[in-house]
Amino acid sequence: MTEPRHDANVSPEQAAQTGTLAARISLTHRAGGVAVPVVTVLVAFLMGGVVVLATGHNPLLAYRDVFNGAGLNWIFHPTTNIADTAAYHLSQTLLATTTLILTGLAVAFAFRCGMFNIGGQGQYFVGFYVANWVGFALEGMTPVLHILLAIGAAVLAGAIWAGIAGVLKATVGAHEVISTIMLNWIAIWIGEWLVADGGPLQDPSQPFNPTSKAVSPGAQLPVFWGSQSLQGLHIGIFIALAALVAFWAILNRTTLGYEVRAVGFNPDAAAYGGIDVRKNIIRAMAISGAFAGLAGALDMLGYIYQFSQNDIPVSAVGFLGIAVALLGRNTAIGTLLGALLFGGLLFGTTHGLTSNVISPELAGNLTYIIQGLVVLFIGADVLILYLWNSRRRGRRRRPPAPSAEAAA
Amino acid sequence: MPVLRRFRSSIAAVSDDLVLEMRGIRKEFPGVVANEDVSLDVRRGEVHALLGENGAGKSTLMNILYGLYRPDAGEIRLNGKPVTFSSARDAMRAGIGMVHQHFMLIPVMTVAENVVLGSEPVRNGVFLDQRAAMRRVADMARTFRFAVDPDARVESISVGQQQRVEIMKALYRNVDVLILDEPTAVLTPQEASDLFEILGTLRREGISIIFISHKLKEVLEIADRITVLRRGKKIETVPRQGATEASLARAMVGREVLLRVEKPPAEPGEVLLSVEGLHVRDDRGLEKVRGASLEVRAGEIVGIAGVDGNGQTELIEALTGLRKAEGGRIEVGGRELRHASVRHTLDAGLGHIPEDRQRRGLVLEFSIAENVALHDYREAPDSRWGWLFPSRLIERARRLIEEFDVRGGGPLTPAGALSGGNQQKLVAAREISRDPKVLIAAQPTRGLDVGAIEYLHRRLVTERDEGRAILLVSLELDEILSLSDRILVIYEGEIVGEHGGEVSEEAIGLEMLGGGQRQVA
Questions:
Q1: Disruptive mutation site among B29, B365, B387 for chain A (greatest number of A CBs within 10 Å)
Q2: Residues 132..161 of A with a Cβ closer than 8 Å to B: which?
Q3: Alpha helix locations (H) across A119-142?
Q4: Could you give the CA distance from residue B67 to residue B70 in angstroms, rounded to a whole number?
Q5: Which of A375, B201, B259, B277 is such that its CA lies 20 to 30 A from the CA of B294?
């Protein structure tokens, strides 16, 4: 699904020469194939298991319960009957997956342009707020139009929010990691203010209760598996899957994607080729933010409908998107698999967990332990690369290297 | 503690006494025989050049000698005794040192600290004896005339000096054989000639030097004997006396090579590139181009000669829209381009072979097909309404690969996997295939081997005869002299001399150093 050109025969030294983040990651990819993320996940689970063991529980049983909690045991007896526990849990896992696909894409797209978008959480929030506002303020509109309008407005809001970081980088060189983190906090506090007593989105029928109004039924996304009252699976998952296809097509089949990748790999060569590097920085950030804004819209219109001040600090789907994208190596198919993994973990270790093997307090944190380890391992790409190469050297008992001559 | 045993036993230069013999070395990598039955012997106190094109097996052979690879067959004898090395540490202990193209120095440490790193002198068996280290390094720097301050931090000294630190590291460990892997590739001409003086001193002290290179001229200047490799096999070992550039090139490439470019007289037509009173500043705000004016006509090659750093880079960047010019005029085919973007210069018919193909000319991670489209991806037939057609890119890449004889991969091979010569052919293929009116070729043959240089030079002449205006900017005076129909000399951002194609190297050399008409005037 991704580039067939990622042949194994580029010498790492050459790939590293351009030195951008994307070039470095691409080098890791070639060196490790699909093995690095798989090994990363296995090691992360292993270390998570050590934590469980240290608390005096059996890690194998704990992971079995997480597996069942995520509803993945559904594959042993598939059924569409939502009353079935496994089926219900699976629908909840897929609900989380929907969000994580999009917040993952928000990180992956910027990454392909050589930028690290840490601001998925903030971009998600602005989409979330805007979808809520359009969702209740235009009550009475034709349902399909209302949904499209709410989604469109949220996507635009996410794009603008991320675009601010892009503009700052392109004009004054402010690093996107710093500016997106700051924008996250601005988004969080804007949310707190929006629903504070007397805030613009606050529900006046419940004075002193910092909660927004609910999205009107006409703007709510249809649920196709389960019931709306029990947080069923909405059609947003198909929108997320379509976004994956769009992500792949934009990057690999459009001139826009060509520019994004050229800038990501080598901005000097891109400029020489006639590509406007600044424009691409802004545009790639905006597209990234659009994915995150879409995630916020689907959550709001799909099953959350209204939010209170307490909901804001507990959301971490934007940050999980970083792990999803890194694990999925910023490709479409990888992001899908990463989102499934973390979606399963997210639900399987919390609400889905019906276990007395591990306590829920520990289980809920297991997701974040594994997430942290994944980011750590992928971030330490040089280490993984080194381990991988030394393993391969050991196996073949010779250095990998006529390319050393070619590099000369 | 022995300081430099070389002083105690100074041996007469170039004896017949063999310090190193390699016999029947064979090394195979998956799919490639990098060395086949290669033999090499090195005398005490000689500079032995190892000459060959890229990929001829020079580096492999030396990596075997330095213990980085193990040979599949063959024998190495050092001072008459057979040796096997399983690591660079073994080789170093036996008296073999190597200076790689990429230096292995720690930037934040001083010269002396870098030199002694790994074999620090200790006091009382525990403490690092900083002063003894400093003294020994300072002694060494003085006796070999290294002109390096032992207290300076490595990050603050020039590339040429860093290279000398690498050489000092080897000398500090008392090597008998010093391998230098293409040492001049990173040096300016002045630094190269300083290096050659140091090598002369080392040779007189009885140290043998193996000098890897693909530059014929410098090999003839510095080597006592020359061994030529071609496609992994040893072709010959010859003394410098009697060897000529032509004979060495023939041995390297395996056929007669035209070192002089054959070209009919130019037939210049209308002016296609015209520059008047151009002023350009560099990134630090220094004015690097100061009122340069020049013209290039259809069907001629105009060479710009000059010492590195006299404004060539900024001039080219201004012409191609990569840098804003402060004042003056640039016209291509009558279109004013001083304020133009890169895209506008491309549309106006400007082609540009950039001086750094890896940093600027290619996206190394992109496939050949994607690189071929670097300027044209936005236009039909590559794309329409923003939709890219990869099959058309691939088809075009296939055509250009064939026409320009780019070897080492197909349309989907990453450009980074190609050798330097083939990368440059790919850049040239892309630029020429866009049918530019004006072609700017900056350092078009830097780092390339003889065969690739010959190809690119012939191609530039062909394109000239097709009626293109070609502006050649090169630091290699030979290249300027052999290709140009007219030669301009740039010095401190000004054009200080203009000559016809036939002019002596000395006359230009003087102007390049600022000793031309400006002083006369």
A1: B365
A2: none
A3: 120-137
A4: 7
A5: B259
Q: Are B137 and B172 in contact (CB under 8 A)?
A: yes
Residue with tokens 């009116």: B437
- Is the pLDDT at A386 greater than 70, yes or no? no
A278: chain B residues, CB-CB within 8 Å: none
**CA B401 to CA B416: how far, in whole Å?**
15
Going by C-alpha positions, the residue among A324, A318, A321, A342 that lies closest to residue A123 is A318
User: Is the distance from CB of B240 to CB of B226 less than 8 angstroms?
Assistant: yes
Are B365 and A26 an interchain contact pair (Cβ–Cβ within 8 Å)? yes
Q: Is A254 exposed, middle or buried (0-12, 13-18, 19+ CB in 10 A)?
A: middle
Closest CA to B497 of B519, B482, B476: B519
Q: Cα–Cα distances in Å, from B118 out to A311, B91, B429?
A: 58, 15, 48
Are the CB atoms for B424 and B357 separated by under 8 Å?
yes
Q: Do B322 and A272 touch (CB under 8 A)?
A: yes
CB A333 within 8 A of CB A99: no
* Beta-ladder partners of B486: B302, B500
Quick: pLDDT tens for A315-334. 889 999 999 998 888 899 99
- Cβ of B63 within 8 Å of Cβ of A404? The answer is yes
Which residue of chain A has the CA closest to B407? A406
Q: How confident is the model at residue B470 (pLDDT cuts 50, 70, 90)?
A: very high
Of A17, A273, A399, the CB nearest to B364: A17
- The answer to whether residue A397 neighbours chain B at the CB level (below 8 Å) is no
- Judge whether B190 is closer than 8 Å to chain A, CB to CB: no
Let me know the angle formed at the C-alpha of A65 by A63 and A71, rounded to the nearest 5 degrees: 110
Model-level pTM greater than 0.90?
Answer: no
ipTM above 0.95, yes or no: no
Mutation to test the B interface, candidates A29, A255, A263, most B Cβ within 10 Å: A255
Burial of B108 (0-12, 13-18, 19+ CB in 10 A): exposed
User: Which residues of A fall within a CB distance of 8 Å from B182?
Assistant: 408
Domain A12-407: CATH architecture, name and number where available: Orthogonal Bundle (1.10)
Per the CB < 8 Å rule, is A272 touching B54?
no
Right CATH for B5-253 from 3.30.40.10, 1.20.272.10, 3.40.47.10, 3.40.50.300:
3.40.50.300
Amino acid A356 reads N
Tell me the shortest Cα–Cα distance from B324 to chain A, in angstroms.
13
Q: pLDDT confidence of A195, banded at 50, 70, 90?
A: very high
Contact B361 A26 (CB under 8 A): no
Q: Give the pLDDT score at A405.
A: 37
- Amino acid occupying residue A359: S
- For residue B370, list chain A residues with Cβ-Cβ distance below 8 A: 5, 258
Structure tokens at A101: 């696909």
Domain boundaries, chain B: 5-253, 357-435
Whether residue B182 lies within 8 A of chain A, CB to CB, comes out as yes
CB contact under 8 A, B417 and A255: no
Q: B46 exposed, middle or buried (CB, 10 Å; 0-12, 13-18, 19+)?
A: buried
Residue A380: pLDDT band with limits 50, 70, 90: low
Chain A: give the shortest CA distance to residue B162, in Å.
19
Q: Contacts of residue A8 in chain B, CB cutoff 8 Å? A: none
C-alpha distance across the termini of chain B, in Å: 61
The whole-angstrom separation of Cα B8 and Cα B2 is 10
